[in-house]
Amino acid sequence: MSVVSADVLPGGALAVEGAPPGVAAELAPRARLWPSLAAVYRAQLSRARVARIPLLFVATFQSIGIMILMRGVVHDGAEAQAVVAGSAVLVVAFVALNLLAQYFGQLRASGGLDHYATLPVPPAAVVLGAAGAYASFTVPGTVVTAVFGCVLFGLPMAHLWVLALVIPLSGAALAGLGAALGLLAPRPELATLLGQLGMSAALLLGVLPAERMPDAVRLARDLLPSTYGVEAFARTFGPHPDWAFVLGDLAVCGGVGVVSLAVATWAYRRAAVR
Known about the structure:
Blueprint: E1 13-15, E2 24-26, H1 33-70, H2 77-110, H3 112-117, H4 123-136, H5 138-153, H6 163-184, H7 188-207, H8 215-223, H9 226-235, H10 243-272
Antiparallel strand pairs: 1-2
Helix pairs in contact: 1-2, 1-4, 1-5, 2-4, 2-5, 2-6, 2-7, 2-9, 4-6, 4-10, 6-7, 6-9, 6-10, 9-10
């Protein structure tokens, strides 16, 4: 049985045992968004630190292994840039999309949402705090993967600083999608399956060079949120990056992130009151 959050009750007040009929106790002021978000973020970060670090190593080694395999068929040029950029963003997809979908799917199935629903915490703080914590784990693996790929394919490292924008924007888009999948899936097994399928799509459509894909597959690639993070990062490897296109790709990635996190917040509200 789910517990409905106090803020959805009529009048924002709760009945108190022993109080006269018709008399309700006023609730304390509702927590503000940013302090609540910071509290959820710290709690999720400390809770997931031990359990998720081994999985982060798996995500990093997976991306590095893919680059080593692709080194046999891709040598340089735009294809090498696409492989390195796609492998780096794949680390973000593994954690922010796959693991977050599993987390929220299990949280919903185990009744963990009931705990958050009883707290005076805005739903957006729960979703953003969890998404931010999971996305934070991708930073070391993404940087290591990018540096290794640059060394492996002989690409310049002068503009690796753009990862400071690619990671949070791609992470927001993929984390919002992963949270929405986990919260909307009727069973945790289905949430896990959807998360795995999303990560597989990021692998196949993000790492493989777009020039070698059929037109129908390219269309599917354009619909994947992580594609724009991959494109933005890949453009920076050229001798004279077109920063207008880089910023355009990042803007699209950020816009998708806002929409996906809004959908995840709606899905959280929907799941918490059931």
